[in-house]
Write a structure and sequence with these properties.
heterotrimer; A alpha/beta (440); B alpha+beta (497); C alpha+beta (412); A: 440 residues; alpha/beta; five-stranded mixed beta sheet; four-stranded parallel beta sheet; 24 helices; C: alpha+beta; Uridine Diphospho-n-acetylenolpyruvylglucosamine Reductase, domain 3; Vanillyl-alcohol Oxidase, Chain A, domain 3; 2 domains; five-stranded antiparallel beta sheet; four-stranded antiparallel beta sheet
Chain lengths: 440, 497, 412
């Protein structure tokens, strides 16, 4: 498309990147087809093409974001289905990330909303605080019935969002897993050494996911280290537009991982939450202008792998599965669109004796999208219900996914056990049979 | 903007506030959009060279709302521009500054799938591909497949009479639609046709299809679905010269073979598509033919042999035949995304659409080459070789002064050449605003008047999408006048019995 | 009544203008073979275009033929046949049903829009008319469409001309799409099925991927007057359901086997090949069982179009209630019904049943007195009827052309 930035504007490296992205867009509209909000709402404003247009206008005119622009950008799930669909190679992710930063910086949200977002940004990335908040949520849950239900209001109110948050809290919390600094030796001959991202929400809600990963990896001769002083990857705050916080975390992680790589050697940094994986793989871009961290970040991004990517390179022990478990594979957006990992997890499951079924409309987000299911509960629940209905058509025994957010979202609406892909692979190669998430 | 649109009605603009209020009473919630920032995303469809924010955007949920909106606008003399997915390449959904932009994006339900009668009844906002996906489990599909099928709406397809790769064998939208529910500008809701193969009386469905949003707003459509052929395989054949490829096309048709699809791409188009899709397109050929043969396995095998022989007889330099469904789709993936893939080699492009008799293909391409020289703009050619429908993609950079004007002049010359070679201005994208001013190249004033009179039968006030398709607007009363010539009773020199 | 035999388009313009000036409506004919279809017209003179009979251009490699409207249909068919091409929509030869001689002109073929069995696969006349030059009821020559298939330039007026029974404009020259003739054909026959079961069999066949190009059912009563091609089938005794496959020989053979398997639940199939198959379909196309020269020659005949899956039940009930005979084509979507002669051709009953099934009915053959008082073409719902009238007025405001033919009350 034609862009109208002045030379002065283009001197800003972020604007230069935005200009390049905008000029790649030819306004063809293919992206609207796979955008979950456009599919639900049928309004160009809630489509990638429309958002691109709004962002373009905002950046070109260098005006503060308006309430309307914020409303539509807030509704974006950052599922990145549009990027998979776009034939012109528009890097929508980088554009909307920029827009969120600008909104956070230049737009004054209503007080209640600001407070809620601040609490989310504070609590979610800190396992200790998150754990405490989950306990409180469990206590508060009986009162959720008093909070307003879904309505057609343009922007969900605070109480509506709190109700959504309470609904997501699990009935019980599992005991915490191993802490940073732990090293798990390979069983038998050591063939490799990896760091395993500890995550933030995942280690509170489902430490068994990483436990399964550790079991599987060590069983196959891979030493696993949980790097000390590793932090939340920054995805949550990044998507809230809190760039400062996100970049600080990125830098901190790059530092500790580089140190670990230098000291003990790392073949890869494995991630079991694909939402994190996408961001860590983007560290190189996020820190490209930071003279001190650019190179390190690029190296770390290259080292980062989703656990299924890494497993594809290992020859796994023969499976004990007899082909009598039907698994609906839920393709997390961050995995299929963000990291372009589509067939790999399914092949792994299928090779290891599971009957794998694709879910209809698999390109559509389940509605979890980080904090989206809290901040946009009505759209999130519509997407969740649609996803669950689609999954039900294949009548699975279990639902497998590669991202904790999806697992919590989907488990909230079905009684079919929801597990992580790695748990199934661990089970197939000698580990225990996994139960559903939230039922430990 | 180079194209003149009907003059804005200041009286209407002055009442904008009151109009917005009235529309909000009909379409509650978020369905009425009137802030400048939000309306802006609706200012253009797939033809980005033209932009015009509307006076207000209305996104109704139900047919009843559509009817009430139109009725209100009819009574108030307010113009209306309908919009589907906004993927039109001819500016069909370009708003008017004093008009309502009526978006059908919320009409997203498939209402009925009837396998026994082999039809699907759908709302207009459902995408073309979604219809095929909805019936795929039973081995059916909806045949017309414009390249934008992932996103384009079936309502838009009906308005434009869209084609696509497979329309060579399976027909265009008009050959695959049996009925509709349409709301006239007066607000009147009519049901035309249904599940029967043809209607009684005049073929109103036939005239509504391709009417580019000028005759009514479609709120439901009944389409034919076909059983998928047993098998489909594609050949990808490269030629050192475009003329050889054109000859191959002619010979295939001449041999009585009607392929499921037969497409041609020239070198620049091949390169752009390959960069996106990595299908293994040969990068050193001047023309690539992708020919699809579908039907029973035995037939496809036989036809592949015949086509291969013909291609070799025309001097093909490369030939690949798909061996799996995945491979066949890969061959097509680049062609189907060719237009936007060109976005990788050029910031902007103007996608032309004209049809010529197949035999004139080499002549037309030679002329396009000459024009490319004349206007100093690159061009990538993609076309439905099977039916002579050309899509030259004129590459330009809107950020460079003068380029868009040169691109438009280039495009207009191409279309004039199409008419000159015995063809027509537009094969499937519609006239819209893009080719409106070229209509006199093809039609005389009498021809155009007859078409406009038909419009009067549907929209006597001329409020639905004025400024599209026809270069001048006439008052219906003026067009309806019969001129009595001479008043003579009989002409003596005509033989009579 | 004067017959004005025009020589060219200019003549047509003059005649129409004179008719407008003197308010003398015209009956437009080619050879007049289909004059008896529709209401008796309220016209004062006959405009005869049969001298506009040149073949302007035939381009087999472009799959098009451009002819003047008065060219005999039979002549065009043998011309394109010589190049192994055909009108894929199988235009009906109305002479059998109407007892006229000859099958008229190309203009009549288009104006009548009566397509044969292959309509289910290839579409109707309206899907093959690419362009036309015509003179409107304003007395002006106009053109619409073009000479190429892919054409969306302006409104598709050709669609209105097809099936308009000459009431919108006088065609002077038209361009039609031609298609290659199939190399071979074969017909699968099931016998003894009742109408509803036959309908299911046809539905199964048309829902298969075997590219069925003809699906018809002849109840056994249809054979009482069997002549010609169907006489042989009559020897079967019970009803016959026919499914046609066309294409290259190896493909047809292969598909026949597959289709037979699909139809196994309905019984075993017998085969008709090539000429025998073609003859049978010709007889179905022209509704031979109800031929004017046959046993039911003086029975009124309805042409009913309905959703195909509803045809069997509809036809069976109607035959029972009216005492008439029916034959089915288009997989059940086209029903020809010959009814015992009654002055109103049982119109009310027929139309009520047909409408309930989602279809429409036209009284194609009936004595003139019947056609004076019974609506020949299916009455349309209020809004659609009004729109159709406005459409007509946009072509012929003074209702000069074939006045009274389509609507029961002569419109003014």
């Amino acid at each position: 498309m034609k862009t109208e930035f002045s030379l002065a504007q283009l001197a800003d490296p972020d604007i230069a990147v935005a200009d390049k992205i905008l000029r790649a867009c030819v306004h063809c509209g293919f992206c609207t087809a796979t955008c979950p909000t456009y599919v639900l709402l049928g309004d160009e404003l809630d489509s990638p093409r429309g958002r691109i247009y709004l962002i373009k206008e905002m950046l070109e005119k260098d005006r503060p974001p308006t309430a309307e622009v914020v409303k539509h950008i807030d509704r974006c799930l950052s599922c990145l289905a549009c990027m998979t669909t776009c034939p012109s190679g528009v890097h929508y992710m980088h554009l909307v990330d920029q827009a969120r930063v600008r909104i956070e910086r230049d737009y004054s949200r209503p007080l209640a909303e600001r407070a809620l977002r601040a609490v989310l940004a504070l609590v979610l990335p800190r396992p200790g605080l998150f754990r405490a908040s989950m306990i409180m949520a469990r206590l508060a849950r009986p009162f959720a019935a008093l909070l307003p239900a879904s309505n057609a209001a343009a922007t969900p109110g605070l109480l509506r969002r709190i109700k959504a948050m309470l609904a997501l809290a699990p009935n019980s919390l599992p005991a915490p897993g191993p802490s940073g600094g732990s090293v798990f030796a390979a069983i038998g001959e050591r063939r490799g050494r990896v760091a395993l991202l500890q995550g933030c929400a995942q280690q509170v809600l489902a430490p068994r996911i990483n436990q399964a990963a550790i079991n599987l990896l060590t069983r196959h001769g891979i030493e696993v280290v949980l790097v000390r002083d590793e932090q939340c990857c920054g995805a949550l705050t990044h998507h809230l537009g809190h760039d400062g916080d996100a970049l600080a975390r990125a830098r901190a992680n790059v530092t500790v991982w580089q140190k670990e790589a230098e000291q003990g050697g790392l073949d890869a940094i494995l991630v079991t939450a694909s939402g994190c994986g996408t961001v860590i793989k983007d560290y190189g871009f996020m820190l490209r202008e930071d003279r001190d961290f650019a190179q390190g970040a690029a190296r770390i991004s290259a080292l980062a792998k989703d656990i299924t990517e890494y497993l594809a390179g290992l020859s796994l022990a023969p499976s004990r599965q007899k082909g009598d478990v039907t698994v609906a594979y839920h393709s997390a957006c961050s995995l299929q669109h963000g990291q372009k990992i589509t067939g790999l997890p399914k092949e792994l499951l299928s090779k290891n004796g599971f009957v794998v079924k694709d879910v209809p409309e698999s390109h559509l987000c389940c509605g979890s999208a980080g904090t989206y299911n809290i901040l946009q509960p009505d759209i999130a629940s519509r997407l969740r219900d649609r996803k669950i209905a689609n999954i039900a058509t294949v009548k699975p025994d279990m639902i497998a996914a590669g991202n904790i957010g999806c697992m919590v979202q989907i488990a909230g609406g079905t009684s079919v056990p929801v597990v992580h892909t790695i748990e199934l692979l661990d089970w197939a190669t000698g580990g225990p049979k996994p139960g559903s998430i939230g039922q430990d | 903007m180079a194209i003149m649109m009907p003059a804005a009605d200041q009286a209407v603009l002055d009442r904008r506030g009151e109009i917005v209020t009235a529309l909000r009473a009909i379409v509650p919630g978020e369905g009425v959009i009137d802030s400048a920032a939000e309306m802006q995303v609706y200012e253009s469809d797939g033809l980005t060279a033209y932009r015009q924010p509307p006076m207000v955007v209305v996104l109704p949920d139900t047919t009843e709302q559509v009817s009430q909106v139109l009725k209100y606008c009819f009574e108030q003399g307010i113009k209306v521009v309908p919009r589907g997915s906004g993927t039109s390449l001819s500016g069909g959904a370009l708003p008017l500054s004093d008009g309502v932009l009526l978006g059908l994006g919320k009409f997203k339900r498939i209402r009925e799938i009837d396998f026994d009668n082999r039809v699907v009844v759908t709302e207009p906002g459902v995408t073309n591909l979604a219809i095929s996906q909805a019936v795929a489990h039973a081995g059916f599909y909806y045949a017309p497949d414009p390249s934008s099928q992932i996103a384009c709406s079936i309502g838009g397809n009906v308005a434009e009479n869209s084609g696509g790769v497979h329309c060579l064998k399976y027909g265009m939208t008009t050959n695959n639609v049996l009925g509709c529910e349409i709301v006239l500008m007066s607000g009147e809701i009519l049901r035309i046709g249904g599940k029967a193969a043809e209607n009684s009386g005049y073929d109103l469905m036939g005239i509504i299809t391709g009417s580019e949003g000028l005759l009514g707003v479609i709120t439901e459509i009944t389409v034919r679905i076909l059983q998928k052929p047993e098998t489909a395989r594609a050949l990808m054949v490269g030629f050192a010269e475009v003329e050889a490829a054109g000859e191959c096309v002619a010979r295939i048709i001449g041999a009585g073979i009607i392929p499921g699809g037969m497409e041609m791409m020239d070198k620049p188009a091949i390169h752009a598509a390959e960069a996106f899709v990595h299908a293994g397109y040969p990068l050193d050929v001047d023309a690539l033919l992708i020919i699809e043969l579908d039907g029973p396995g035995v037939e496809v095998d036989e036809l592949i042999k015949r086509v291969e022989t013909i291609a070799q007889g025309c001097g093909s330099t490369t030939c690949q035949i798909s061996t799996s469904e995945a491979e066949r789709n890969l061959f097509w993936a680049g062609r189907k995304a060719a237009f936007p893939a060109v976005g990788r080699i050029s910031p902007d492009y103007l996608c032309m659409d004209g049809t010529i008799p197949r035999g004139a293909l080499p002549k037309a391409l030679a002329r396009i080459r000459d024009l490319s020289e004349k206007y100093q703009l690159g061009v990538a050619n993609v076309f439905h070789a099977g039916d002579g429908n050309l899509h030259p993609l004129i590459l330009y950079d809107a950020n460079k002064p003068g380029e868009i004007e040169r691109a438009e002049a280039f495009g207009a010359d191409i279309l004039r050449a199409c008419v000159e070679f015995g063809g027509v201005l537009t094969g499937e994208h519609g006239v819209g605003i893009e080719k409106r001013d070229l209509m006199p190249e093809m039609f005389s004033e009498v021809d155009l008047n007859q078409q406009q009179r038909l419009k009067c039968a549907f929209d006597s006030q001329g409020l639905l999408n004025p400024g599209k398709v026809f270069p001048t607007l006439h008052r219906c009363a003026e067009l309806g006048r019969v001129h009595v010539h001479g008043g003579k009773l009989a002409f003596p020199d005509i033989p009579r019995f | 009544m004067d017959t004005l035999k025009v020589r060219d388009a200019k003549d047509v313009e003059e005649v129409v203008r004179a008719a407008i000036a003197s308010e003398q409506p015209l009956e437009v004919i080619g050879h007049g073979t289909r004059r008896a279809i529709g209401h008796p017209m309220a016209t004062n003179a006959v405009l005869d275009v049969s001298d506009l009979n040149a073949v302007t251009a035939y381009e087999p490699n472009e799959l098009i033929i451009t002819v003047q409207a008065g060219v005999p249909l039979a002549d065009v068919q043998s011309l394109i046949d010589s190049k192994n091409q055909q009108f894929a929509f199988e235009p009906m030869n109305t002479s059998v049903l109407l007892g006229t001689s000859g099958n008229g002109t190309i203009g009549g073929m288009i104006g009548a829009g009566l397509a044969g069995p292959r309509r289910i696969r290839a579409g109707g006349a309206r899907d093959h008319l690419l362009g036309a030059h015509a003179v409107s009821g304003f007395g002006d020559s106009f053109k619409t469409g073009g000479r190429v298939v892919k054409n969306v330039t302006g409104y598709d007026l050709c669609k209105l001309l097809a099936g308009s029974w000459g009431t919108l404009a006088v065609m002077t020259e038209v361009t039609l799409k031609v298609m290659p003739k199939p190399e071979s054909e074969r017909t699968l026959m099931l016998s003894g099925l009742d109408d509803v079961t036959a309908n299911k069999a046809m539905t199964a066949a048309l829902g298969s991927p075997y590219d069925v190009s003809g699906a018809a059912h002849l109840p056994n009563s249809a054979f009482r007057s069997a002549t010609g091609a169907l006489a042989g089938l009559a020897a079967q005794g019970p009803a016959v359901t026919l499914l046609r496959l066309e294409g290259i020989a190896a493909s047809v053979a292969d598909r026949a086997t597959s289709l037979a398997r699909t139809l196994a639940p309905f019984g075993s199939v017998e085969m008709l090949q090539d000429t025998a198959s073609a003859a049978a379909w010709g007889a179905i196309r022209d509704v031979e069982p109800f031929a004017a020269g046959g046993a039911l020659g003086n029975w009124p005949v309805w042409r009913i179009v309905c959703p195909p899956a509803a045809g069997g039940a509809l036809g069976q009930a109607m035959a029972r209630e009216t005492g008439g005979d029916v034959i089915y084509d288009w997989g059940g979507g086209l029903i020809w019904a010959a009814l015992p002669p009654k002055s109103d051709a049982q119109a009310a009953l027929v139309r009520q049943r047909v409408e309930a099934a989602g279809g429409h009915a036209a009284l194609i053959r009936a004595p003139e007195e019947t056609r004076r008082k019974v609506a020949v073409f299916h009455p349309q719902a209020g809004g659609v009827a009004a729109l159709s009238q406005r459409v007509r007025h946009s072509f012929d405001p003074k209702i000069i052309l074939n006045r009274g033919r389509m609507l029961l009350i002569a419109a003014t």
